[in-house]
Write a structure and sequence with these properties.
Layout (H helix, E strand, L loop, with lengths): L3 H13 L3 H14 L3 H21 L5 H26 L7 E6 L7 H12 L3 E4 L6 H11 L3 E5 L3 H4 L2 H10 L7 E5 L5 H7 L3 E2 L3 H11 L2
Parallel strand pairs: 1-2, 1-3, 3-4, 4-5
Bound molecules: cobalamin.
Length: 216
């Protein structure tokens, strides 16, 4: 049986070669070999996806490559998701998180990982998807009596809309009863402080531990 290191390497290769089948295969191998799916996602798929992003920026890869790489990553994650969700099943929920990728932004992979990890950690997650209108966060927070409203932004041009989430929650009178959380590659703790968001999550693990802190 392949070692964990070999499996992680294969996961990177699957993304860099845009190979959906290889991504599914390596996800199955990881499950069989008892490799933590979270490690496979973070140390394998995500590392390669960031590498693809760097090559895109350097002009070595083009948009169709990024699409193909993200499809391979999604294929792999789809195999892992049932195993991940089984970990968090059948327990009481600790609280409700409304999450979505901000208006104008269609990057969803990182947001999906955060949503899955929150579910595993026993939170009820209301996933609004991507390119989410600011008013939709507010509506969903109201309807679901949310504890946390979380927005993902992957572009410097869309992260500015996270300010609107703060403002519209204030206008609707909800800001005092919900916590806000922001994340995504260009988002930083400084940005969170600047716009008045309560929590900055660097990655899915960080997001879960910080949300957990609110409920203990
Ligand atoms: C994959 C990808 C795509 C895919 C997205 C597929 C999908 N379904 O998501 C496709 C090909 C569609 C795409 C399209 C575009 N992309 Co793109 N894309 C990427 C890429 C390579 C990787 C993103 C990714 O999935 N990473 C893997 C995940 C796991 O990491 P992550 O998203 O960062 O998420 C982690 C953390 O950030 C955090 N997190 C994420 N969300 C949240 C939310 C909360 C609440 C918290 C707490 C934490 C958190 O936790 C996650 C897990 O650990 C990035 C490069 C990069 N370095 O980010 C460019 C990148 C984001 N894209 C970029 C661009 C420019 C575009 C396009 C405009 C290209 C074009 N010319 O059309 C379009 C955008 C269209 C739009 N309106 O949104 C630029 C953005 C530059 C900028 N302005 O800031 C980047 C940085 C590439 C680059 N270096 O130039 N893209």
């Amino acid at each position: 049986m392949a070692t964990k290191e070999e499996i992680i390497e294969k996961a990177k290769e699957a993304i860099m070669e845009f190979d959906d089948e290889m991504a599914e295969e390596v996800a199955e191998e990881a499950l069989d070999a008892g490799v933590d799916p979270v490690d496979l996602i973070q140390d394998g798929f995500t590392v390669a996806m960031n590498e693809a992003g760097n090559k895109f920026e350097a002009g070595e890869l083009f948009l169709p490559h990024l699409i193909a790489a993200s499809e391979a990553m999604t294929a792999g994650i789809n195999v892992l998701t049932p195993a991940l969700e089984a970990k968090g099943a059948e327990t009481e929920t600790k609280g409700t998180v409304v999450i979505g990728t901000i208006e104008g932004d269609i990057h969803s992979i990182g947001k999906d990982i955060v949503a899955t990890m929150l579910k595993i950690a026993d939170f009820k997650v209301v996933d609004l998807g991507r390119d989410v209108a600011i008013s939709a966060y507010v509506e969903a927070a109201k309807e679901n009596n949310a504890d946390v409203v979380a927005s993902s932004a992957l572009m410097t041009t869309t992260m500015v809309s996270q300010i609107q989430v703060e403002e519209q929650l204030k206008e609707s009178g909800l800001r005092d009863t919900v916590k806000t959380m922001v994340g995504g590659a260009p988002v930083t703790q400084d940005w969170a402080d600047k716009i008045g968001a309560d929590i900055y999550g660097e990655n899915a693990g960080d997001a879960v531990s910080k949300v957990n802190e609110l409920f203990t």
